[in-house]
Amino acid sequence: MAELVVQMADVGVRRVARWRARHFLGLALLSPSLVFLAAFTYWPTAQVMWQSLYAGSRRAGTFGLGNYQALAADPAFRRALSNNAAYAVGTIVPSLVLALAFALTLVHSTRLNALLRSIFFLPVLIPLVAAASLFLFIFLPGVGLLDYYLAKIGVQGANWLGDPDVALYSIIGLTIWKNAGYYMLFFLAGLQAIPPEAYEVALLDGATMWQRLRFVTLPYLRPTLAFVLVIGLLGVITQVDHIFILTKGGPSDSTNLLLFYIYQQAVERYDPGKAAAATVVMLALLIALTALSLRRLEHNIEGRE
Amino acid sequence: MTVKSVRAALRPSRLLVIALALGWAVPFLWMLVAAFRPERAAGAGMASLVPDYVPTLANFAEAWELADFALYYLNTIIICAGILAVQLVTISLAGYAFARLRFPGRTVFFYLFLVQLMLAPIVLLVPNLRTVAQLGLYDTLPGVMAPYFASAFGTFLMRQAFQTVPRELEDAALTDGARWWELIVHVYLPLTRPAMVAFAIVSVTAHWNEFLWPLMVINSPDRRPLTVGLAMFTLGAEGAQAWGVTAAGTLLVVAPLLVGFLLFQRRFVNSFMASGLK
């Protein structure tokens, strides 16, 4: 009996020890990730907020909202903001419509459809810089691909990247080409999740093709649509590599986007205060955007549990 | 093809999509045709999509000579492999902790990881550049890699995969006296290989294609990755109007990704869909 009690106590002690070890283990296993997150996510976020409040040099500078005032007064920054908004709408709306059209048309897996899907997906794979290298020639005035073939059908081309009224549209065209295939993937998955019965009912009711699209397909695709919208918005804010190759933000700031503006302030204008303030504006945008989709995100990540 | 599918193929909306697909392929087609075009045909005929010539490798030879693509390849491979190697360690450790261990502050840490999904590292490029410089990593390949060593996306992906592993397997291994790291290496990782492969594809493609961050960190020409090398090369060739050479250089950069895609289409597509979570 006594022996049994000792044995049980022994098991208890061991269990506590194991429980403690597991507590410690959890933290220990997170720590490598936490070190890097601290160094390259939390610390820079705090630092950039702090720095955005210093105007002038670090030692002699003044503390306050000077950088934000300078930012608000900078026509280039305001231009970058409005460009980015126009770029977002101009890119995302046509991309979504095209992606949905591609997915609806190519949803059945025939051999031809698989080939067509691959063609739409190819631009997604290549670096944005490489896409820009190709479009540099496509947009070349006179002898470039676009002007060459437009001339054959008797249409006068434009100065695609050199005309401030046209350049942003050219950039938008490139981005649509690059991204539509990516969004198509999500719509394809969304379409495959619609139960066939939903269509059968609509067909029995004599619904036309448009009615089926409007009252069956689109309602089912709503979550997909919301999701693609968010990744689309994140994309138009965080991807500016093509700007570097094609226009460098010009002519006269007509293609300058927010992130490229930050790059310019930091690297070309040596204005860390303004770069920091613009970064904070951008972080605020990103947080607002993800807050909108956070519940979805959590739902996705939590999965089972 | 059956009669029905032929009829379906001829529906107007399908024809429109087929026409659009042809348009979508044009930049790639031009790249192929221009890259193999002999130099004499340069100028007005450069835009033609018809390969009316005897193919030559002259453009590739010139591109290879003008820019050190072999070195750029090596740098890009080192960057991608380095990032992935560290990530696989950090994400499987953290993924296991979140999937199977109870510890104080677990929820708080979960949300701390979530922050990285919101604040894309690229947006923090200005303060991160300063940190990299302070660590003495400016103009080095580890400096390009460091901000990506932790991955919330990868952690959550592995966590989800680990949760599908039956607990009985872990208990059985524990009774056999296995340590935690033996559990991860011998029980969990072999059973979650698809998730790891999916993450690897997303990670490698993302960093193979990355431009702005390495552009800022790298100063020496011999440490440039492919994207930065290609950008400098393109801007140089633009001045010289050497479009065939640009096309050849671009082809050199995109070829490995396109070949990888053609070989493993389904895996690529699945991984890209998972990356939407990011």
What does this molecule look like?
Chain A is mainly alpha-helical and 305 residues long. Chain A contains 12 helices and 2 strands, in the order αββααααααααααα. Chain A has helices at 2-52, 66-73, 75-105, 111-125, 128-138, 145-152, 167-192, 196-204, 209-238, 241-246, 258-268, 272-302; strands at 54-55, 62-63. A two-stranded antiparallel ribbon of chain A has the order 1-2. The two termini of chain A are 42 Å apart. The relative contact order of chain A is 0.11. The mean pLDDT of chain A is 85. Chain B is mainly alpha-helical. Chain B has a single domain, classed as Orthogonal Bundle (MetI-like fold). Chain B has helices spanning 3-9, 12-35, 58-66, 69-100, 106-118, 125-134, 141-145, 152-163, 167-175, 180-191, 193-209, 212-217, 226-240, 243-263, 265-274. The mean pLDDT of chain B is 87. Classes of the chains: A mainly alpha (305), B mainly alpha (278). Chains A and B meet through α1, α3, α4, α5 and α6 of A and α2, α4, α5, α6 and α8 of B.
> Which of globular, elongated, flat, extended, rod-shaped describes the shape of chain B?
globular
Largest interface: A-B, 97 and 103 residues
The proportion of residues forming helix of chain A, as a percent range, comes to over 70%
| CATH fold topology of chain A | MetI-like fold
Outline type of chain A: flat
Structural class of chain B: mainly alpha
Helix content of chain B: over 70%
